[in-house]
Write a structure and sequence with these properties.
0% strand, 268 residues
């Protein structure tokens, strides 16, 4: 694929002052890592020497080591310089380092949007599909493929895979809405919506039990202090009664009340 550097005359180095040239040369010599060269290149671009900045960005590329490094470099070049050739080079190296579903998916989106290279993006989306495992991943991939490549048939196949991986009612509901809206397939959307409703019925007892447990925990939290305080006061009354039978009886009564209201786990 041929990526051409934008036809744009860069201001020459003599656009910089002697002090700027001296400062930037020292900074270039002192820079040791990716981020140091990237910061310097941005300053040089701002000062007006894009040609020099390109050379510094190439030095930054030599310092990049992993997927995140190359993607960050491409983003910075795009933001500050807009050199498609340098951006493409960084993305090529990022592709080599990509491993996970999200790596390939994000790379494909960036290449589609920044470089407008649909063919390259398609290859990366295919790699992302090979890494996808969950319903959400197939769902997200289908959305971006339909948006960036306008490939409705590929998106349909991915939505089908998303349906096969879906487990919760929320996943089925969301899928049904997208099938209705993006694919305009009412019959399929109706079937998926039915699955969502059926799954919701299955989930309801579990959800109700969870809410009941939450309510009980909230109620129990109100009783712990009162129960503890009742037992402590009762214990003190009984111990420090000085033989007063009435205080002993009251203390024992309070301790018994504390034990009685102490929250218990119904399973025990």
């Amino acid at each position: 694929m041929a990526l051409k550097t934008p036809v744009e005359e860069s201001p020459k180095a003599n656009a910089l002052t002697k002090d700027q040239i001296k400062e930037f040369k020292k900074a270039e010599k002192d820079s040791e890592d990716l981020y140091g060269f990237i910061r310097l290149a941005a300053k040089i671009v701002e000062a007006g020497d894009k040609e020099w900045a390109r050379k510094v960005y190439k030095k930054a590329e030599d310092k990049a080591e992993d997927y995140e490094n190359y993607c960050f470099l491409a983003d910075q070049i795009n933001e500050n310089l807009g050199d498609k050739r340098l951006i493409g080079n960084a993305y090529k190296k990022a592709e080599v380092k990509a491993e996970e579903f999200m790596d390939f998916a994000i790379l494909a989106v960036n290449i589609s949007e920044i470089l407008n290279d649909k063919e390259w993006a398609r290859k990366l989306y295919k790699k992302a599909e090979g890494k996808a495992e969950s319903s959400d991943e197939f769902f997200e991939l289908a959305e971006v493929i339909q948006e960036h490549l306008e490939d409705k048939e590929w998106a349909r196949k991915l939505y089908k895979k998303a349906e096969g991986k879906a487990e919760s009612s929320d996943e089925f509901f969301e899928l049904a809405e997208v099938i209705q809206e993006h694919l305009e397939d009412k019959e399929w959307a109706r079937k998926v919506y039915k699955k969502a409703e059926d799954k919701k019925v299955e989930e309801k007892p579990a959800n109700d039990l969870f809410k009941l447990q939450q309510f009980k925990q909230k109620q129990d939290s109100k009783f712990y202090p009162a129960s503890y305080l009742s037992m402590v006061i009762g214990f003190c009354l009984a111990i420090y009664s000085d033989g007063d039978l009435e205080r002993i009886i009251m203390g024992i009564t309070l301790m018994g009340l504390g034990v009685l209201i102490w929250p218990r786990n119904p399973e025990n």
